[in-house]
Amino acid sequence: MDDHRYFRLDCWACYCYSVEKKNKALRRKYEQMMVNLKNGAVALPEEVQEESNENDTETESEQELTSKNTISADTVARILKKLATFEKSEKYLKKDLTISSLAGQLNTNTKYLSEVIKNNTSQNFNHYINNLRINYIVHKLYNEPKYREYKISYLAEECGFASSQVFVIAFKKINGLTPSYFIQSLKEDKVNIS
Prior knowledge:
Blueprint: H1 2-38, H2 46-55, H3 60-70, H4 73-89, H5 99-105, H6 110-121, H7 125-143, H8 152-158, H9 164-175, H10 179-189
Helix pairs in contact: 8-9
């Protein structure tokens, strides 16, 4: 009988330890987000950060050679300039945005657009758009406390996601924590409340 009691106590202690460890990890991610927001930095998906570290061994001349083989430098510069304008216009918030529709807006083709995005952000088109959308809503939540009172479904719709499930998955993938945790932490810390 005593063995069962000790076993349950051990299980309970392990559970409490793992919950505490998870909470500390979430808090560290939240605090890193706060540092990035205060410094004006944008979040990169965790997978892109890892890929970037791996790709640091590839030299710039190798990257330029790969890019020049398929697209001229002038075309790349033109597409990048148009992408910067696109990002400022917040047209990425449209739910029906596709690579074809964006290529049409930028007067280029999908192959070039896809390659420029991949070579300059280390992301495919969908991850690039999701990253823009999540960064948009993170800044809204940080800077405008009224957004913290909205439902997740509204926030998802506000930043262009078709469903709240996809929004939550993308938010967690990019920031390492859920939007609910982020919102709750902002409320507890009374961030940007006058």
